[in-house]
Design a protein that fits this description.
By secondary structure, the chain is mostly helical. It has one domain. Helix content is 82%, strand content 0%. The chain has three helices and no strands. Helix 2 (15-36) packs across helix 3. The longest helix has 36 residues, at 42-77. It starts with a helix and ends with a helix.
Length: 78
């Protein structure tokens, strides 16, 4: 599998992140239906997956930027 649509749509996320999040969302939708008798529209599940992955990516970028600035501060202090 080459680099492709996953990176185009979700930046630095790899297929593991996408697969794990998708599985979790589908499992959660299934639990709502079984336990709460609430049927979630598949488009709602897909929208949740997209929004969660975008937020996850934003947090990864923030942490990466924070790590770089902390490293620079430590390097200049040494």
């Amino acid at each position: 599998m080459g680099e492709g649509s996953g990176q185009d749509n979700f930046g630095q996320l790899d297929w593991f992140d996408i697969a794990l999040t998708t599985s979790w969302a589908v499992w959660g939708a299934r639990n709502k239906e079984v336990h709460d008798n609430v049927r979630q529209n598949p488009q709602e599940t897909a929208a949740f997956i997209r929004s969660y992955l975008v937020e996850f990516q934003r947090c990864k970028k923030f942490n990466s930027a924070t790590d770089r600035s902390e490293r620079r501060a430590l390097e200049t202090a040494s």
